[in-house]
Each structure stands twice: as structure tokens, then as C-alpha cells.
Amino acid sequence: MCCQACIQRADPPGPMQRYLKTAVFSLGLAAYALTAYHTHGYHQADEHFQIMEPGLAVTEARPMSELPWEFPAKMRPSLQIWLGLGLTKTFAAAGIHNRFTQMTLIRILVALLSFLLIFRLTEYLIRHLASERARVVALASVGLLWFMPYLHSRFSSEHLTAMAFVAGLLFLFKAEAAQRPPIFWAAAGFCFAASFWLRFQTAFALLPLVLYLVFARRDWPYHFGFGERTYTEKILPLALLLLGALMLSAIALAADRAFYGQTVVTPWHYFSENLLQGKAATFGVSPWWNYLRSFFKAAIPPIAVLGFITIGYFLFKRRISFIAWIFVVFLGVHFMIRHKELRFLFPLAVFLPAMIGEIADAFIQRRSVSRTQQWEGKVIITAVLLLNFFALALSAFVPADIQVAALKDISGIAANQNIPVVAAENLTLNGSDRFQFYAPNLPTALFAGNKTPPASGEYLRHIKWQRTRGEDYPRCKKLTGSWWHQIISYLPEDALYTDRFTGYAILKCQP
Question: What is the rounded average pLDDT of the residues 195-216?
Fold first, then answer.
């Protein structure tokens, strides 16, 4: 294989490099765990209302009409819903009944598993790099690139589909290694099918991967295909991949039948509703370049610029690699789809560390660089690193959603206390999207949407700093709340930041 020749030319890892690899692994693991512990709530409402609330509806035998419109339309796969329900039931059986604690544990489990998978994937993808320092840079970016821990600690369909895809790749790499049993091919197909049934859009990453697998030659970078084999030699691995995919698909169909109470082909309903009937476009349409603008704003402009350069460099240099094929097809299809959200592209983030290693290797191998250029480069790199670590620390300790963070605080303060709760906002607790999942841990008065203080006795009040300030309530004492409410004034006008960094306070007031 061509990668083997590259590996032989690479710098042998010395004691310092091994120490640095251990250090970046430990720091990355800690960053993922801390972020998972503190980022209460969801990045986007679908992460909760399309997964955890429907799971609760199953246990309570609630009618499908009470759920979001996607469920009466029978277009949402239920695999992840059952997974979330199984985890919460397992925690409850172990004596952990608090729903906020259950979700924290789910995020931690997801984050730690994700870090191990992405770290291992990156190790494989950077084996051909000539510089050991570049490999350390790539591995460090798995855990220390500021948005990586946040993206990969979410129990969302965008993230779990990426992790199933990465697991499939790792099994595929093992299947291509010498003297590996056929079970690895079936395991790869199983994981790839899981990535599809978790999020149907993953088909646009699976299609170029399968084409690459069939046609890749031995001299192609990141090779793991069998393009030079005879048709007879291709049949067995493809058949095993298909067998694994069919096994998972059978499980997914059975899960959907149990969830909907009848046999349902959710991929077809999804295609029919969103593409044939154009339902997705009713949630907003954007031009093709909106993804570029969204990434530029969300990733923080200085880091985003380097991100564009890194991705562009990699796609040009490794244009016949399977990563380039996936990027071009996946991005191209999403550019054409009229409804666009940046989270739809989050699965591609798993390849960024390898891309960073590629461009770092190119810079390290450069010989004709003047001292002035070296000094300028060090200044730029230092400034970007400082900005990255500030964003990493901030992102690790700020909740993903202010509503759930406020609800968690209220549940802790009002537990076993007969104190009325007065909300400055109703926290979407009245309506089809109310937080029934967290209801057992919340005071009953909160669900009444009460905004009028009682005539006597103490009460809790929840306010949003963006709407009003604690000083507007002179007879109230702040019990808990956010420390970041001023940060919003320094951030770009973007929903990603507004939803996360709006401050909140829980006040204990006198009439």
C-alpha cells in the first residue's frame, strides 16, 4: 500500500513526541469531559424535542398527534429515540432518577466515546505524514480545537451519525489489513447502515465512500479500497458489507414498527415530505454560499479563515482521497438543498484534525523561509492559539441552551420546597413543545406559566438578562445564574452565540 511507504519515510517518534502525544490525549479527554458536564441543554431544539420527548411519549403512551409534525408524517427514524430511552431507563434502574443528571451522564458517555473514535481515526489518517510534530498537531486538534469538544458531546442525530460513520471507517481499515477475519467487513457495513438510519442525509457521504472503495487504486492516498482486484475478489467484501447493513436495517425497521405501531419505511416518508412536497423549504431558504458565511461567523473569523485555507489546501492536495470525495459530494448536495443550517455539516468536522496535520506537515517541511517570515508566522500562530484556548475554555463552561440551564437551577433550588415560581418568560412550558421530559424534577407551578407574584410568601423568579436585569427587582436576591451575560455584547450577531450566551438569573423575592 502507498501509505506504508509514506510511513517508512516519516520521522520515528522520539521520547518527547510520545510524551506530547500522551499529553494531548489527556488534555483532549479532559476537555471533552468538562464540556459534556457543563453544556446543559441542546444546540438545536431537534436534539431534545425529536429524541428525548418522543421517547417519553412511548413510555406514557401519548398519541402521535402530540409530537412534532415529523412524527405524524412518519418520517423520523426511531433508532436514536430507543437508544436515549434505553439509557435513561438504565440510569433509573441504577437509582439515578433526576433527568438533568441522566442527560449529563449521556453527554459524558457520548463525549468520551467520541473522543476515542476521532482520536483513533486521526491516528490512522496521519500515519503517512513525514513530520512527527505535524502528527502531534493533528492529534492535539482533536481535543483542543475549540469547537470540537462542544460538537462531539451532543446527543444529536448530526453527531451520532458521524460517530457511527467513524466506527464504520475504523472497521473498514481493519478489514483491509492483512489476515483480518471477515467479521470486520460485516461490522463496517453494520455501522455505516447505523449512520444512515440515525440521519438519512449521511447517504451523501456513504455513496462516494462506496464508489471510492470499489475504484480506489493502490497508489491513491489513504488507500483502503480494492479497485485493482478482480470482480470475483470484490464480491465477498461487498457481500459482507451488505450483510452487515441489512442486519442493522432490519433492526431499524423493527424499531420503527414498534414506535409507530405499524410497518413504516421512514426514509421514503422523509424523502417524500422534505423533497417531493418541499416541507424543509418552509423553514427558510438560503443561497448556496450561506454555509460559507455561517462557518465564517460561527467558528470565529480568524480561526475560520485558517479553517478555509486548511480545507482548501487538503482538498487540492489530496483530491483523490476518500475524504475529498466525501467532502465534495456531501457539501455539493447540501449547497443545492434550499434549507440550510450549519449543523447539517457538523459530521464533516471529524476530518478536520487530519486536514490540520496535512497543512502543518507542509509548513514544517518547508526549508526556504526567512527569519522575518518565521517571526511573523510565530506571532500569528501564537495569537490564534490564544484565541482558540480562550474560546475552548468559554465553550466548555457555558450551557448549550439557557432554558435548560435555568430549569436545572430551578429544579435544584425548588426541590422539596413549597415556593411558587414566577417566570419572566414561559420557557415554552405551555404548548406542544413543553419540557415534559424534565417535568418530574420541576415545581408544578412552573408549568402554569404564572407571571404574577403571589400576594404573600417568598417566591422564585427567573429572568433573562438580555430582556431585563436583576437590578429591576429590588426586593429580590439572586440565588444563582450566569456569569457570562455581558459576553453577548462582544460576539457576532449569530443565533449560535445568542442562544448560548444570553444570561439568566434565579431570584428569591419578597412580595
Answer: 93
